[in-house]
Amino acid sequence: MTAVGMRRIAAAAALAAVSAAVAAGGADSGGAVAGPQIDPAPAAVSAGLAHSSDPVRAAEYWIDDYGIRDAWKTTRGKGVKIAIIDTGIGKGPAEFEGAVVGGTDVSGLGSADGRTPVGSADSDHGSWVASLAAARGAGKGKGMIGVAPDAELLSISVGFGSSATTPFTDQIAEAMRWAVDNGADVINLSLTTNRPDWDESWDDAFLHAFDNDVVVVVAAGNRGAGTTRVGAPATIPGVLTVAGVDRQGRASVEASTQGITLGVAAPSEELVGVSADGRVVDWRGTSGAAPIVAGVVALVRAAHPDLDAANVINRIVETARLDSGKTSLLYGHGLVDAKRAVSATVERVDENPMGSLSEWIRVFRRAASQPSDEPSVGPVDIPSLPPAEPPTAAGSPLLPTPDTIRYGTLPLIVVTVPAILIGLGVTAAVRRIRSARSSGASSS
């Protein structure tokens, strides 16, 4: 497993319940969403008036600064589906005309097609996110354009906070499965739980995505909203977590957080987004940085349809730009570079550089081991024991038995008789010697 994968395993704790909040805004105790900072008269759009006949296009500085326009010379994301799991993509804006090809609602609050934005304070959030990923403009070179304008969108509406009738963890699990089963190549999650652990139901949901070759892009969360550390789903091994930077490429103090699970960084300040009613607003947050990267992922998948999800992610992180002196705790592998991600030569890998969820589950969930193979050798025949000898009738202990004669009396006779004979011979010899000596003494 890669070093990043091991850090992800270390970062994620044991099972716990989670409460959700959109990454741009954070959550209160009930899980309600506080929307990202917006400006009804966008400063970024207003600034663009001096530079272009279309101020919205001029405000999208990331199109040129992050190599996206150069990447369009190769592909604009055609044939790739991006699932936006958020508050729903509005039907009205021209920028989404023909882009949204399917959707559903998992909150119990929206419409069956996922196109009715849900939430009292954050209903436009899903439309803003989608516009950054794959808006198609309003025609004649005007209107907001996304990073992958030829990609298709899936709109999956979720509800945050106490207004939702379905628990948030269940909504995300269902949304993930629906996205995968309906052809998503990329899933964007611009939300955070503000805690590193996640509900166990997410194990299967995210594994379903990884097993079906889907790239999952997740926002890191925002320090300005009280997120001091990266929270789930950004801590789940295998996802591509996105940090946020300002227009100068510096880690955003307000609109980003830090952590060891970061993959790459992208713009999270001075962003523009299309609301459900067609208004263009100025906003900020890693909720916007994530769909920019999701769009780049779509460009890579379109340019390299032979690459699996692990190698798509590897191209993104290996071609990112990390200036000297910058730490991976704030920037991950560096600032995303769409041109290099699409065109650079990158060696293939066998593992997802962002870690393995299945390995994490094996280690931390104590998953049951696979049953061992059945033995291939048959049973061994063991010969039966000989029958026991029949018991003998009990006799008097004073009378000899065959065993006492065989093992006691006979050996004793064999040893004792020779000894007695030798003793008698020695005695006789001694007597003869003494007798001879006595005769000799008398004659002298």
Helix-strand pattern: HEEHHHHEEHEHEEHEEEEEHHHHHH
Count of individual helical segments: 14
Strand numbers in spatial order across the main sheet? 4-5-3-6-8-9-10
Number of β-strand runs: 12
The radius of gyration is 42 Å
Spans of at least 5 consecutive residues whose pLDDT stays below 50 are 2-41
Report on the architecture of this protein.
It is a single chain. 34% of the residues lie in helices and 11% in strands. Strands 4-5-3-6-8-9-10 form a seven-stranded parallel beta sheet, with helices on both faces. It has a three-stranded antiparallel beta sheet with strand order 2-12-11. By secondary structure, it is α/β, with parallel strands linked by helices. A hairpin with a 5-residue loop joins strand 11 and strand 12. It is elongated and about 160 Å long. Helix 6 runs parallel beside helix 9, helix 7 runs parallel beside helix 8 and helix 9 packs across helix 10.
Task: Provide key terms for this protein.
alpha/beta; disordered N terminus; elongated; 444 residues; 14 helices; 3-stranded antiparallel β-sheet; 7-stranded parallel β-sheet
Question: What is this entry, summarized?
Answer:
The protein is α/β, with parallel strands linked by helices and 444 residues long. It is 34% helix and 11% strand.
Itemize the secondary structure elements and their pairings.
Blueprint: H1 3-11, E1 21-22, E2 38-39, H2 43-47, H3 55-59, H4 62-65, H5 68-71, E3 81-86, E4 100-105, H6 125-134, E5 152-157, H7 168-181, E6 186-189, E7 191-192, H8 201-211, E8 215-219, E9 240-245, E10 264-267, E11 271-274, E12 280-283, H9 286-303, H10 309-318, H11 328-331, H12 338-343, H13 357-364, H14 402-443
Parallel strand pairs: 3-5, 3-6, 4-5, 6-8, 8-9, 9-10
Antiparallel strand pairs: 1-7, 2-12, 11-12
